[in-house]
Design brief:
Number of domains: 2
Pfam family, one: ERG4_ERG24
Helix content: 55-70%
Strand content: under 5%
Largest sheet: 3 strands, mixed
Pathway: Steroid biosynthesis; zymosterol biosynthesis; zymosterol from lanosterol: step 2/6
Bound molecules: NADPH dihydro-nicotinamide-adenine-dinucleotide phosphate
InterPro entries: ERG24_DHCR-like, Sterol_reductase_CS
Transmembrane segments: 48-69, 147-167, 179-198, 337-355, 403-429
Oligomer: single chain
Strand order of the largest sheet: 1-4-5
Order of helices and strands: EHHEEHHEEHHHHHHHHHHHHEEHHHH
Number of helices: 20
Number of strands: 7
Keywords: Lipid biosynthesis, Lipid metabolism, Membrane, NADP, Oxidoreductase, Steroid biosynthesis, Steroid metabolism, Sterol biosynthesis, Sterol metabolism, Transmembrane, Transmembrane helix
C-alpha cells in the first residue's frame, strides 16, 4: 500500500504544528482516477548518459571515495607524484599499516549501524514540527517530521561531553582511525537501501519517480524507482528525507571534529586552517539543518526517486569525501597566517552571503512573502517567478554562492596537492548538470513562460558571466 498521508482537510484535529511546503503543482482535472500505470508512466533512460552512464557512476563514485583515502594519507603523503609512489599506494589497499585503511572491520560496521540507529531514534523520540510536503501527482501530500536540528544539537552536546572528559580527545579520533572501514560500512548500508527500495517498489503499489521507471535495472537502481519509499509498517518514516540531511551530513561534522582532534594530538594545537575548515563546513551543516524544511522544495525530494544516487551520495559521498580537507590537514598541517586567513574568510563570507540571500529570497517568495518588494512575473501555470534581486541576476544564484563557499573550504589546504581541490571541480560538474536538469524541468513545467523568464534573466549561474 502507498504511504501517502491524508490531505490537510482530512488531517483536521491534529495537535502538531503543520506547515505546508510551498512549491505548487497544478494537477490536470481527471474525471476518473488514474490507474497505477497511468500515474507511473515508463521513463526514458536519458539522464547521466543512460544505463551505461549510471552503471559507471555507481562503480566509480564509491571507487573514488577509496582512492581519495589510499592516495592521500600519512603513509603515502598526498598525492603520490611518482610511479613508485602510486605502486606503494596501491600496495596498501587491503594491507594498510593501521585500521584506518582496513577495507572491512566488523567493529566499524557495528559502530556505523549504531550511528544510523541513533539517528532513527532521534527522529522518532525528539520533538519536531510536522510539515506537509508538496502536492504529489496523485493529489495527496506526505507529512514529514522535521527534527534534524535537535538531532544535531543532541549529538553536538554528547560530543562536547566526550571531548571535555579526560581521554575524550583520544576517543574522538576513533573515527579518523577507522576511516576506510567506516566508508565500507556506509556503502553496505547505501547499497542495501537502494536494492531494497528498488525491489520493494514492485510490490507495494507506491508512487514512482517519473525519471526512475525505465525498466532497466542499472538505470532505475541508480536514479531511484520509488519516489517516497518507507520501511514496511512504518509509513511515516520517509527514507529519502531522513537520509538527505541526518546520518551523512551530521557524520561529516563529526568526522571533521575527529580530524581536528587528531591534529591536536599530533601538534598540541589546532592550526588556523583546520579551524577555518571545521567552522565553515560545520556552519554549512548547522545552517542546512536550521533550514531543514526547505529541502522539501528541492529536486531531490520533489522529483528524484530514492536510489543509489541518493543513498550513496547522502551516506558515503558527502561525509567521507567532503571530509577530505580536514583529514588532509590532520596529517599535513597548514599555517595560513593572518593575511591568507582574511582572504579565505572573505571568500567564504561572500559565498555565504549570496547563498543565504538567494535562498531566503526564493524561500520567502514561495512562502507568499516578499519583504524586499522584488519584481516577479506571473506564469500561466499560476506560479510566480522572481525577476529581480538575486533571481534577476542569474537563474541559480544560490549555486554560485554555494560554489564560492566550497572554494573557501579548499583554499585552507594550501597548494601542495591538487587532490583537496577535487571538491570544487566535482561541485562545478554537479551544479552545472543540476542547473541543466532543473532548466529542463522548469521548461517542461512553465513552457513558454520559462523562455520569457530566460530572456529576462539570461545568466545561468554566475551573474554577468555564465
Ligand atoms: P534551487 O534552489 O535553485 O531551486 C530550483 C527551483 O526553484 C526551480 O525548479 C523552481 O521551482 C524554482 N525557481 C526557479 N527560478 C525561480 C525564480 N526566479 N523565482 C522563484 N522560484 C524559482 O535548486 P536546488 O533545489 O537544486 O538547490 C537548493 C540548494 O541546495 C541550493 O542552494 C544548492 O546550492 C544546494 N545544493 C547543495 C548540494 C551539495 O552537495 N552541497 C547539492 C545540491 C544542491 P518552482 O518554480 O517549482 O518552485
Amino acid at each position: 500500500m502507498s504511504d501517502i498521508q491524508p490531505t490537510p482537510a482530512q488531517e483536521e484535529g491534529t495537535t502538531t504544528t503543520v506547515i505546508t511546503a510551498t512549491t505548487h503543482l497544478t494537477l490536470p482535472a481527471h474525471p476518473v482516477p488514474l490507474t497505477y500505470d497511468e500515474l507511473n508512466p515508463r521513463s526514458k533512460p536519458v539522464e547521466f548518459l543512460g544505463p551505461i552512464g549510471t552503471g559507471c557512476i555507481s562503480i566509480l563514485a564509491p571507487l573514488f571515495t577509496y582512492i581519495f583515502f589510499y592516495t592521500c594519507n600519512d603513509a603515502v603523503g598526498c598525492t603520490p607524484t611518482t610511479v613508485s609512489g602510486w605502486k606503494y599506494a596501491w600496495s596498501l589497499v587491503g594491507n594498510f599499516p593501521s585500521e584506518a585503511g582496513y577495507l572491512w572491520e566488523w567493529k566499524s560496521f557495528a559502530v556505523y549501524s549504531g550511528w544510523y540507529a541513533y539517528c532513527i531514534a532521534c527522529w522518532k523520540f525528539l520533538p519536531g514540527d510536522k510539515i506537509q510536503g508538496n502536492l504529489l501527482r496523485d493529489g495527496t501530500r506526505k507529512t514529514y517530521k522535521m527534527n534534524g536540528l535537535y538531532t544535531l544539537l543532541l549529538t553536538l552536546g554528547l560530543s562536547l561531553g566526550v571531548l571535555l572528559n579526560p581521554g575524550g580527545i583520544e576517543l574522538f579520533t576513533w573515527l579518523y582511525d577507522h576511516w576506510v572501514p567506516l566508508v565500507s560500512s556506509s556503502l553496505v548500508m547505501a547499497t542495501f537501501q537502494a536494492l531494497w527500495v528498488y525491489g520493494y517498489s514492485y510490490f507495494n503499489g507506491e508512487l514512482l519517480a517519473l525519471g526512475g521507471n525505465s525498466g532497466n535495472f542499472f538505470y532505475d537502481f541508480f536514479m531511484g524507482r520509488p519516489l517516497n519509499p518507507h520501511p514496511p509498517l512504518f509509513p511515516s518514516f520517509d527514507i529519502k528525507t531522513f537520509n538527505e540531511v541526518r546520518p551523512g551530513m551530521i557524520l561529516w561534522l563529526l568526522l571533521n571534529i575527529s580530524c581536528a582532534c587528531e591534529q591536536y594530538l599530533r601538534l598540541g594545537t589546532i592550526t588556523d586552517s583546520m579551524w577555518v575548515v571545521i567552522l565553515f563546513e560545520g556552519w554549512y551543516t548547522i545552517d542546512c539543518l536550521i533550514q531543514e524544511h526547505t529541502i522539501l522544495n528541492q529536486m531531490d525530494i520533489t522529483t528524484d526517486g530514492f536510489g543509489y544516487m541518493l543513498s550513496m551520495g547522502d551516506l558515503t559521498w558527502v561525509p567521507f569525501t567532503y571530509g577530505l580537507q580536514a583529514r588532509f590537514l590532520a596529517f599535513k598541517p597548514v599555517h595560513m597566517g593572518p593575511v591568507w586567513t582574511t582572504v579565505v574568510v572573505a571568500i567564504e563570507l561572500a559565498g555565504n552571503y549570496v547563498f543565504r540571500q538567494a535562498n531566503n529570497e526564493k524561500g520567502n517568495f514561495r512562502a507568499g512573502k516578499n519583504p524586499k518588494k522584488l519584481e516577479y512575473m506571473t506564469t500561466e501555470r499560476g506560479t510566480k517567478l522572481l525577476t529581480s534581486g538575486w533571481w534577476g541576476r542569474s537563474r541559480h544564484p544560490n549555486y554560485f554562492g554555494d560554489w564560492l563557499m566550497a572554494l573557501g573550504w579548499c583554499l585552507p589546504t594550501g597548494f601542495s596537492t591538487p587532490l583537496t581541490y577535487y571538491y570544487i571541480i566535482y561541485f562545478v560538474i554537479l551544479l552545472v548538470h543540476r542547473q541543466m536538469r532543473d532548466d529542463e524541468a522548469c521548461r517542461h513545467k512553465y513552457g513558454k513562460d520559462w523562455d520569457r523568464y530566460c530572456e529576462k534573466v539570461p545568466y545561468k549561474i554566475i551573474p554577468y558571466v555564465y
